[in-house]
Amino acid sequence: MMKMKTRPVEVLRRGHMACPGCGLSLGMRMVLRAMGPKMVGVVVPSCVAVTSGPFPYTALGVPAFHSAFEIAAPTAAGIAAALKEQGKEDIPVLAFAGDGGTFDIGLQSLSGAADRNENFIYVCMDNEAYMNTGIQVSSATPRYTWTGTSPTGNPRRKKQIMEIMAAHRMPYAATASIAFPEDLTRKIQKAKAMRGTRFIHMLSPCTTGWKIGEDMAVKVAMLSVETNVFPLYEIENGLSYTITYSSRNLPVEKYLMAQGRYQHLQPDQIQAIQAETDRAWVDLQGRAAKRKEEL
Ligand SMILES: Cc1ncc(C[n+]2csc(CCOP(=O)(O)OP(=O)(O)O)c2C)c(N)n1
Ligand SMILES: [Mg+2]
């Protein structure tokens, strides 16, 4: 008998409203596929909401609540509490928000929810700027990056959101990439099997804001990992670090020069980004090694 391959259930439907080649919508699709159709979603103003589509249409094949920009986390916490009250604790709640909605305007409400260890999964789709409003700097925008409000390059450094989340000593926090779907799927499934506040940080290449071709989102995401600009790792209980993919340690220039938003960089700026990336990578390896020593 011919072996039939079972196709995964696609929770993000066809005909969504994202730009062609959007890395964020691909990430949403992978996350939702890993979650499966039995869940409740939360979206807030961002490209996540654009992808989901305007009322009365939706590309999300699950019930979802479109909340306000600054309250993705408490909205998810409230829905989880209501489901518990109804005896439906087997239905997970997952919130999507952008980097602006997470690193900036939603940070205090996310921190409060994580401090209370509310029961939801939070996925930050980080495209490193306020994209759907026209490419403005956020605190997730890396140093020297071109955006509409940093035309000569962002003078500030990227906020270290994983360190902030780890400081809450929450059950689970992980980075994930659309270029590593198996790692991403495993992390979502692991998070789904846990309880309490779980945080996923996903770098989401944006064709428009990063000035890359429609066929480049996955390649650029892959280069972010292989250059250690965006390492793949997870943190359990805020303390136990595990690197989940050994990168090829490629020079950061390969990642930077693949994108229009970095074409203005001078050699000394590329060197500074390389040095900072190296320092962060050594620091991360140290944290992961410390964990092994302790076990
Ligand atoms: C309180 C509030 N302020 C501002 C806005 C306008 N607004 C909607 S989406 C958005 C940008 C969102 O940026 P980000 O969270 O990074 O998501 P992205 O669009 O990049 O996916 C802004 C400023 C809003 N909806 N609500
Ligand atoms: Mg953004």
List keywords for this structure.
295 residues; alpha/beta; Rossmann fold; eight-stranded mixed β-sheet; 8 strands; globular; binds thiamine diphosphate; binds magnesium ion
Summarize the structure.
The protein is an alpha/beta fold and 295 residues long. It is built from ten helices and eight strands. It has an eight-stranded mixed β-sheet.
CATH architecture: 3-Layer(aba) Sandwich
Q: How many separate structural domains?
A: 1
Mean pLDDT over the full residue set = 96
**Ligands bound, unique:** thiamine diphosphate, magnesium ion
Computed over alpha carbons, the radius of gyration is 19 Å
Spell out the CATH superfamily: Thiamin diphosphate (ThDP)-binding fold, Pyr/PP domains
Shape: globular
**Low-pLDDT segments:** none
Percentage of helical residues? 25-40%
Kindly report the CATH topology.
Rossmann fold
| CATH level-1 class | Alpha Beta
Write out the strand line-up for the largest beta sheet, numbering strands in chain order: 2-1-3-4-6-5-7-8
Order of helices and strands: HEHEHEHHEHEHEHEEHH
Distance between the termini: 48 Å
- How many DSSP H or I helices? 10
Largest sheet: 8 strands, mixed
The total strand number stands at: 8
